[in-house]
Write a structure and sequence with these properties.
The chain is mainly α. The protein is built from eight helices and no strands. The relative contact order is 0.06.
């Protein structure tokens, strides 16, 4: 473990510093628990892991491992090949349905969309790259609306001070 680099985020780093203070006897474990915002019991568990494994004990056990939900490369390659050769003109939803019916491959429409974007087969933006409308906190405004026209002819609106 000596000289080995460990990549960790800010939170585990803070926990490691506090556990160092606890081990050095500068603060009590209860104070350390308060500093890192955890219960006393959980802090005892962290202290034990740090004593056994050092800084590595603060990192999640699955860090660095591939996801259990990822698609196998063979299936991914087959889907991409089918999307280009056989079902090239289909949209994502239709292609997903055809994969399930004809090929027996169950994938979600969103997975197909992300794969297409990743291979550069389609654009990622949902709205076609149209720029967003600028934010206008006042909306259209009363002076530009049909309501103002209607209220101008209404004497009750003037009586209650809706219009000036």
């Amino acid at each position: 473990m000596e000289g080995e680099k460990i990549l960790m985020s800010q939170r585990p780093l803070q926990r490691l510093e506090v556990m160092g203070l606890v081990e050095a006897g500068k603060i009590m474990l209860k104070e350390g628990a308060e500093k890192i915002g955890m219960s006393y019991r959980q802090t005892k568990r962290i202290r034990k892991r740090v004593q056994e494994k050092g800084g590595q004990g603060l990192i999640h056990g699955n860090t660095g491992n591939p996801s259990n939900h990822r698609m196998k490369e063979g299936i991914k390659a087959k889907v991409l090949k089918l999307s280009q050769k056989v079902y090239g003109e289909f949209n994502d939803q239709h292609f997903t349905e055809k994969l399930a019916e004809e090929e027996g491959i169950e994938v979600s429409r969103e997975t197909v969309r992300k794969m297409s974007i990743g291979r550069g087969l389609q654009k990622g933006s949902v709205n076609g790259g149209r720029p967003k409308m600028p934010f206008n906190p006042g909306g259209r405004g009363l002076e530009k609306s049909w309501m103002r026209t209607w209220l101008q002819g209404n004497n009750m609106a003037r009586a209650f001070g809706v219009l000036r």
